[in-house]
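Input sequence (247 aa), recorded before submission:
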Amino acid sequence: MPEAKILHIEETESTNLYLRKLSEEKTLPNGFSVYSDFQTAGRGQRGNSWESEKGLNLTFSTILYPVQLKAENQFLISQIVSLSIYDTLSEYTDGISIKWPNDIYWKDRKITGMLIENDIMGDYISKSIIGVGVNLNQDIFKSDAPNPVSLKQITHKTCNIESVLISILEKLSSYYKLLNDTAATHRIRDTYKDALFRKNGLYKFADAEGFFFARIKNVKDIGLLCLETETGEIRNYGFKEVRYILD
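Predicted structure, token format:
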């Protein structure tokens, strides 16, 4: 992924929507990114809105064309984006982890969310639009989101938004170059697992059947979260089929 253009806009409904519309109007280079001071309708994985005070946080989207990546391996996109943000934020503070599938946490609080939209053509991914929201300089969160935190709340320092963006994109470019290397993708998956939120120990979860205690056993290549309950039962979950209980 060569160095690509970064477009800055003051306000948009959603950087993902903006980038998708732009990509339909003209051919964009691999890695082209757009970031906005404010999104009026930012979305997360579960359809939740993303609270962000104007000009204080990083909200951006990037387009990739991983045309050699089979659709069955699309979770690798989520993993390399998560690791790029994890690596960047870890340069500012300890306590960063990746909450499956791709939220970034500081301790028990959410600092980053993302929405990844993959276009599939046949057996391969033709286009991936990745939307990210990173809480950077916001001091107060007014919504009913249960556990937001910003980098400023953690470090008590204001950070340069564009510097954080460039760092994330540089790391993403490095990871992206490894996607066609089988040995490297194994390392990516292992690194992702090592960075997982609550990777060790027994914790409370909830699924359609109710609450239970389990430990993370594995994350499968297709993205399934493999849990081992306190009774030794192995359960595999797809996105939105299980949730962490953070109390």
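Checked by second reader. The mean pLDDT is 94.
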